[in-house]
Amino acid sequence: MGGFVSMNFLVRRVIRGDELRKTRLHNYQGERIDLAGLRFLPACMYSKLWFMLTGRRPTVPWLGYRATLKIGSLLNPESTVLEFGSGMSTLWFARRCRRLVSIETDPAWHAEVIKRLARAGLRNADCHLMSLDSCGKVTDPDESFDFALVDGCRRDVVVSVAVRKVKPGGFVYLDNCDVPDAEHSSARSILLVAAKSAPEYFTDFSPCLAMVTQGMLVSI
Which of 81, 166, 175, 196 is the most exposed place for a label (fewest CB within 10 A)? Predict the structure, then answer.
């Protein structure tokens, strides 16, 4: 009996990823990825396998593939970017904008990102290490940025900061907006109120994560 239960759990884990989604092809809201999005599954699986075998992270944002393509189309060499949650996206943004401000709450990861930026010769990123209680304290004036990414911790807090700091006509992207908890639901609601038009949703695979997630992009 114990073996059957264990096998049943393993099969469900392989198919669903966790207990909160129908399958790995569905986001937390129960929406299934479309056929166009499935073309990124091989890239997702390759990046996950490569990371497991080598420990090397692909130097691209760990966001939905189509979301990354869209965000890239919004940036130019004169863009200013605000990022909550440092990572591979930090290097990716720094290569595509004039100035990047990145906020991180994990000391070890903050130090690692700083080292990676230095090795890449990227000097246009201001990376700040902050506590969870102060991660929303961005000193730049309001309406200073063309784009903001809301990732990492305290999304319900920092999304309000992102909305203020982005210029009118600029964009805010909220990653994992489909997560069914109070923090993510609150962040999503705040962003919907601030949006000047209907948001664009991205239900996609992302690098190194073999299950579908959702993000939302709004113009402020």
Answer: 196
